[in-house]
Amino acid sequence: MPTGVWFPAARSVELRSERPVMPGPHDVRVHAIASGVSHGTEMLVYRGQVPEDLALDLPTLAGSYSFPIKFGYASVGRVVAVGDAVTRVVPGQLVFVHHPHQDEYVVPEAALVALDGVRDAEQGIFLANTETAVNVVLDAHPHLGDVVAVHGQGVVGLLVTQLLRRSGARVVAVDPIPLRRDLAMRCGADVSVAPDGAADAIRERTGGRGADLAIEVSGSGAALQQAIDSVAFQGTVVVASWYGTKPVTLRLGAGFHRARVRLASSQVGTIDPALAPRWDRDRRLALARELLGELVLAPLVTHRIPFARAADAYALVDAHADETVQVLLTYD
Q1: Of 11, 152, 276, 319, which one has the greatest count of Cβ atoms within 10 A?
Q2: 3-6 and 262-265 beta bridge pairing
Q3: Could you tell me which of 64, 132, 60 has the C-alpha nearest to residue 101?
Q4: What is the rounded CA–CA span in Å between residue 42 and residue 136?
Q5: What is the structure's pLDDT at 119?
Q6: 3-state SS class at 203
Q7: Measured between alpha carbons, how far is 20 from 184 in angstroms, rounded to an integer?
Q8: What predicted TM-score, i.e. pTM, was given to this entire model?
Q9: Contact residues for 224 (Cβ-Cβ < 8 A; gap 6+)
């Protein structure tokens, strides 16, 4: 009988038996190999910091944000059975699915992303976050030679840092955690500093002008304020974090107002309309999948925890952000 991770209440984790599902003609049965715990949205759900009346936005999720809820969106596994009408995948194939943490599940063929050419399951776990990072960079519109401050060097921040460097930007990575600052340098940042050194680092690299662009992907209101304060005249701040119900207070006085700072939201559910003639979700996904073989990913995995100890994984991320980047649940 399949088993899935549920949150019955805030900061509470249970493994629950799931109703077995027989695959229909267009369905595929997948046995999980690994799934990734998100430090952003998923931890907001775990902590009960999501509006209770918010609608679920993936068909694989269950319950509600008022609890109990089954949540997660980065599962990699192998196909073990297919329906008669399935044409794109075969048993034994490695696939990615936006699915909560569960050892085995049945989904429509259309919900799968085949990971042909991907070396291993752990590499595939990063597909969702890589697609998010691609979307952030598409929203940010960096230019060759821009100095970009990336506030937050969790998984998405580290991926954004790598993509910006590939675009020709010069990255100032900002994070309070030494482990993440070290990883930022491995991911191509020109300099990686703690928040209290960010202003000096940006001034030094811009001749006092300020950053051309700042991206906030930390989930911290203080980091968002620092991003606003760090950009040059008519600079842009892209807010990639989702704060849930956490309040954010900003100082939008003379500095923000007179500098004509632009604030822009980035969310992976949609693509910048200005790019619509050329970009759609299929193109974005194809690029993210291609990038899995090119980006620095393996060092981002800091912990592998057996699925049976899922509660320990969430407690670790919740209490020890200084030790964790990408935490994986592993399945026998």
Answers
A1: 152
A2: unpaired
A3: 60
A4: 19
A5: 86
A6: helix
A7: 43
A8: 0.97
A9: 151, 216, 218, 237, 239, 241, 248, 250
